[in-house]
Amino acid sequence: MIPVSGFEGRRVALFGLGASGVATARALAAGGAEPICWDDQYAACSGAEAVGLTVADLTKADWRGSAALLLSPGVPLTHPVPHPVVRLAEAAGVPIFGDIELFSRERKRLAPKAPLVAVTGTNGKSTTVALIAHLLRGAGRDAQLGGNFGPAVLSLEPPAIVRTHVLECSSFQIELAASLKPSVGVLLNISSDHIDRHGTFERYVEIKERLPHAADQVVIGVDDPRSALIADHIEQDDGRVVVRLSVRNPLADGITVRNGVIATVAAGAEEAVASLDGIKTLRGAHNAQNAAAAVAVVRILGLDNRTIAGGLASFPGLPHRLEEVGRIGRVIFVNDSKATNADAAARALSSFNHIYWIVGGRPKSDGIAGLESLFPRVAKAFLIGESAETFARTLEGRLAYELSETLERAVAAAIGVAVESPEPESVVLLSPAAASHDQFKNFAERGEAFRTIVKGLGAKDEKAVDC
Fold it and tell me: Which of 22, 116, 258, 294 has the most CB atoms in a 10 Å sphere around its CB?
């Protein structure tokens, strides 16, 4: 735990009692503050009381004595409308922070030069931070992994010069972390997402851009136009060198991936770092970008190419992200439940051929029309969740589909036709291109349901299959 100083003897309001909220409340209490906690969910409040936290309805509180409002990142700050607790805090002139902001303040107090890697982007953040931490640990470093992925940031060990914190930062967290200043800031990519929470795409981009602008050293993927423009602005406006990443285009300087080989480029001259060939946990162009970003970061932190290559080869991958969970004959089952938008699903679809695609859930604004160029890779789609009818209209006349409604029916229908395919290998792919909240608590629960269904079919553990 990282005890939070600066609020000793003062009352601090805290709204949102998920894992990060509870960790924040405990860290505040450990630093001498008096956290008053609340959540819209009765079960969350009961759980907080059970571990000794003070719970009171913040909508009925006297805000004049509150030093701050600590807001969980899932709670609306501005859109679609501010949460009532946010309105009350603002009306009382109470500052609003998130847990990343508290971590940033403690780092500045305890060890301002302690290594801090912060990664943001629309897609690929979790794989990238997990891979960075894996590479550092393989080199014998103390790497603390958390933030939006993994443990809550304030539950980690405190900042120290011999310890590297590797944090995934969502746009929600960045918005509530004004003093975040990473040693190395990474922007992977930007595509349309979370417009419902930020109002406009431009606002979403502006928030994402804060992280690399604040970093001491900057790594940016430049294969999308917005990120490329941000890289140019940082060099022109701030006068700093940006390490650019590309898996699509040649670079004069930076890190590229061509034919599965990660290489550094300096003044047009390439030097191979490592090959991704045969590493199933880093399959696909999107994972090539994730790996290139991780390589850029750990090279900045002093790892050599041999150590990097060994770490890439031993990376176990992450659940729910192109995770191969089983096989029946020539059919592989791939769990990509984390693909909650079209851009993420595109990365999965581009990684395979002969796909039996399970798609749908609670739709986002971009839908799946932008995936049409990848439809030739799909043998048939199986539509589930609230988006089924909408997605069916997109697919009509372009791709064979059926309305399966539920995940269990979709898996049964997909394996029924996939096993009859003459192809040497087919893929039943759960890559929903939609949120999970219509039928599941979150993408992880959806992915675990897929894994359980596949196991019930008698599929072999894919990890044990040599293919």
Answer: 294
